[in-house]
Amino acid sequence: MLDEFITDAYATPTLRWLASHLPGRLLSKFSSRREPGIADERVSCLWGTTVLEHARHQLGYSRVETWNKLDGRFSSAAGELAARHQTDLLLYSPYAWEAFTRSYRHQPKRVLFQYHPHIGTERRILDADAARHPGYGESFAQHEEYQLPEHLARRERDAWKHADLIFCASSFTRDSLLAAGCDASRCRVVPYGIDVLPPGELQPPPQTFQALFVGSGGQRKGLHHLLMAWRNAKLPAGSRLTLVCRVLDQGIKTLLEGLKNVTLIQGLGARELQELYAKSTLFVMPSLVEGFGQVYLEALAHGCPVLGTANTCLPDIGTEREGVFLTPSADVDALVSRLEALGQNLPGNAEIRRAARALAAAYPWQGFRKMIRHHLAG
């Protein structure tokens, strides 16, 4: 259905030829920057914007300000193409403002993909948590995205106001728009998909409680709540929590000190991560704010049950019988109780692992694309 796909770094035919002479790791990285289902001639790459973005990063400019300034170039390019070819617009929320607000000789349908909860909801939740748990919100405490000039801040905050149709990957994201004043009739919830694993035997369920967290080590993911709960929970002997985080906020690093049976891994390959999912009893990420949470589906695809909050995709995709468990957001005591119960019930439970894998298989990417096409045509 695409007239043109506008993006940044993309594996064009020339780049693929050049990459074929690179070492395997670099070749794999370049190859991942392409979607075979999109014809090469329909792709427009804004390479100049990509180079400028990385140059600003290296020179120490604010990353948030850089993104907000340069994202407008993608939106403007989309608007120019839509005007030239008299087509409609389907744009991610950071790249919509300029295209949505310009004038056209035709009447394009403006379709927005709001992939992250509205900033008003995000700020309310993170501010409240920072007040209850000071010292653990280093990334959020900088409030960089909230100190932008108004002409930049409104780009993502208010783009939904100009959309005829809005896609959200979770009900939580949709509800954040409703809280900002959006009419529910304009919103469609379409959960993301997962690359379904080929049929095969699941690994035997662990006989001990092996919990896994994969995500950024900051306040938004609720890692401080998890570490507090892990410290207080009475768990079976041999229980272990593994954290896979590229970066950690300093306050959360402090929480790790003295915690027993917790392993931190900073940097892990895709294959090793898949093995961790398959060997874990429970994936747990008690996020405060999550547009979706792709890692939940990744864990389920490997037969690993998941524990998270309602501020994620989880209420949309499954039930406890299918290996999806919920805990109230920001409630450490409730998280302690959940961990203690699951620590007793999940080890050795092969049935819940089969149900978890079957649940993930119900969310193939083909299904996601089918629903997007259905609503676009509606």
Q: What is the compact description of this entry?
A:
This protein is α/β, with parallel strands linked by helices. Helix content is 44%, strand content 12%.
Question: Can you describe this structure?
Answer:
With 378 residues, this protein is α/β, with parallel strands linked by helices. Helices cover 44% and strands 12% of the residues. The protein contains 17 helices and twelve strands. The protein has helices at residues 13-19, 24-31, 47-58, 63-85, 97-101, 119-132, 138-141, 150-157, 171-179, 223-232, 250-256, 270-279, 294-301, 314-317, 332-345, 350-361, 365-377, and strands spanning 5-7, 43-45, 89-92, 110-114, 165-168, 187-189, 210-214, 240-244, 262-265, 282-284, 306-308, 324-326. The strands form three sheets. The chain has a six-stranded parallel beta sheet, with helices on both faces. Helix 10 runs parallel beside helix 11 (250-256), helix 10 (223-232) crosses helix 15 (332-345) and helix 13 packs across helix 16 (350-361). The two termini are 14 Å apart.
Structural class of the secondary elements?
alpha/beta
Distance between the termini: 14 Å
Average pLDDT taken over every residue: 92
Q: Strand arrangement, largest sheet? A: 9-8-7-10-11-12
Give helix % range.
40-55%
